[in-house]
Each structure stands twice: as C-alpha cells, then as structure tokens.
Specification:
three-stranded antiparallel β-sheet, DNA polymerase, domain 1, mainly alpha
Length: 369
Amino acid sequence: MATISKQKGNYYSRITWYDSDDIRHEKKIALKTKLKSEAVVRNNEVTNKEDVIKDGGSWNFAWLNKHGKSELLRITLVDAYEEYRNVQNINGVRASTLDRVDNSMKTIYKVFGKTYPIEALTYSHIEQYKEYWHSKHAPTTMNINLSKIRAFHNWCVKKGYAKKKIEFVLVREDQKLPNYLTEEEFNGIMQLDIIDVHFRKAFLFYYMTGCRKSEPFNADLKGNWLTIKATDAKSHRTRDVQLNEMLKSIITEMKDRYHMLIDEFGQKPRHIKMRYGKEFKKACRYLGIKGKTLHNLRDTYAVRRWAITGDIKMVADEIGHSSVVMTEKYAKCNLRRLQDDFPSLKERIALRLVPPTEDSYFTNLLKVI
C-alpha cells in the first residue's frame, strides 16, 4: 500500500517494492496539496494503481495535469532513447559512439515505429527484429545493433520504463581470418602513378605503424614518438608509436596538409581524413584488389608483427587493443601461408616453424653428453 509522507508542508505518496533480484525500488508521487484529508483521498487513488506502477507503468494523475483526468503514460522508444542519449552524453560517451547507437536505434524504429511503448518489448519482438533484418544486414552488423539496443533496454529496466531484462541472442557469425594485404598487393599500390605520392606515402605510414585512419592527425609528435592520447583512442588508452626519420617526415607532411586544408580552404576534418580511404579504394579498384579498405593496412601490420614475434600480447599493446581477445584473430593465420604472402619475412617466420627435434641447441646437447 502507498504511504503518505510530508515534506516542507506538501504531501507525497510513496510506493516501495523489491524486484526478483531483491533490489529495492521507490516511486514518489507529489499529491499537490497541503490538506491531509485531500492527501488521503489522492493517496488511495495512487494505491489503486500501485500494481501498474510497480510493473513500470507511469500514471499522470488528475491533480498533475491540466485535463483533470488520470491516464496511463506509456514511455515510447524514442522518448526513452532521448533521455538515454542525454545521460550517455553527460557520462562522457564519445559523439562517434552515440552516432553509432543512433543508427542502431533507427533499425528498431524501422520495425516497430518510434512511438512503440518500451514496456511492451519482449523476447518475441527481438526475434521479429532479427527476422526482419537477417537478409538485409550482415551478421556482424546485426550483432552490433543488437548489442547497442540491449544496452539501451537494460538501462530502461533500471529506470523502471521496462519490466525486466530481455535475453538478446546474437546472430551466429562465421569466423573470418584477418583481411590483410600481401606484399605483392601492397607493392603494386605503392607503384601506382595514378595515386598522388602524398597518399602513397600515407599508405606506407599506416602499413608500418598500424594506426587507425584518424589517429595520425590528432596525435602528438615529440621526438621519435607519436603519442595517441586516451581521449582520441578507440580503446580509451594512451599509447606510443615509435617512428624512424622516414615515418616522422610522412606524419609531418600529413599533419601540415591537414591543417592547411582546414585553415586556408575551410575543409571539414572528416572529409580530409576520408580522402585517404577513397584514394586507397581507387588504387585497389585499378589493380583489381577486392574487399580491401584502408583499415586493412592496420590488419596487415598486426599480422606481420604476430608472424615475426608470436607475441599476441605485444601486438595488442602496439595497435592499442583494450583486450588480447580482440587481437587473437591474428594468431589464427597460417604461418606457412604468411611466408608466401610476405616473402621478406620468410626467414624470420621460419625460425618459429623449427620443431624442437630439429633445433640445433638440443642436438648439440647430445654431443656434450
């Protein structure tokens, strides 16, 4: 039963309850009166709606609106998401991340509409959502969207807008090997006269550092080190990339061009960065290299480093992964295949392929015995 409390001369109705996880919840409703007799009457009305309120319903009581009628307010997907987005923004979530969540929410609006009540969503709705998009989106895209929507719905449960958490079963994905460029492919790109020298040098920079597309432009260059700040890194971790004189020259040229195009021509930073990806795609199309993007130069860096070192933790640190789990995919590459794809590394990879029975260290020990 709802109880009455008084604060600063005003009466309130308070409902408390525990959910299935034994977590305490409380809902306080202003009774908008200083008269106890009137407060008792209004509290009785709140008590009559207590079960609905505990289940996540929100009542707009007659004394709280201009219409003079009590009505059940149903929180819609778009209303709940607007509040969720504001909270995430205050919590420091990056704009780019929020933009990605925006795109995920658009996919659920497409299926059920923006005004669909959040409290009505069930497991069956999520299965219906998956059925709608399964032939339109790749499994990876589906799972990204499902993960974003799940985080939003879990927040709605905490807020009391939804009754209980829904089990989001992700779509099964076939495991794919990293999409890297062979030495032959990369050498072909570097020799293309149709691509400006500046962009070819930039490709070499990405190839030799494993940087993400935006990182060179926002990072600090001091001496032989390029420092990618936590605020600019996808993993929210600061990392240092060691450069030689050639790479320092390239990054300086890239930064100078970037600032010149902004200051003198008013170009947008995003468009300047996108140009590097477009030039890379142009080179791939000319050479008939399919399914490769600028980001695959980062994959190529990681594959080469793992092929040489065999140290997946070190590779994860070098490319700025927050977890080794994200980097483990590179360890699934076939070393003998990598010898063919990267002839310049063949001898270094061969050292990792020598079985203990053929290791000269062990055979020499026999001579001592």
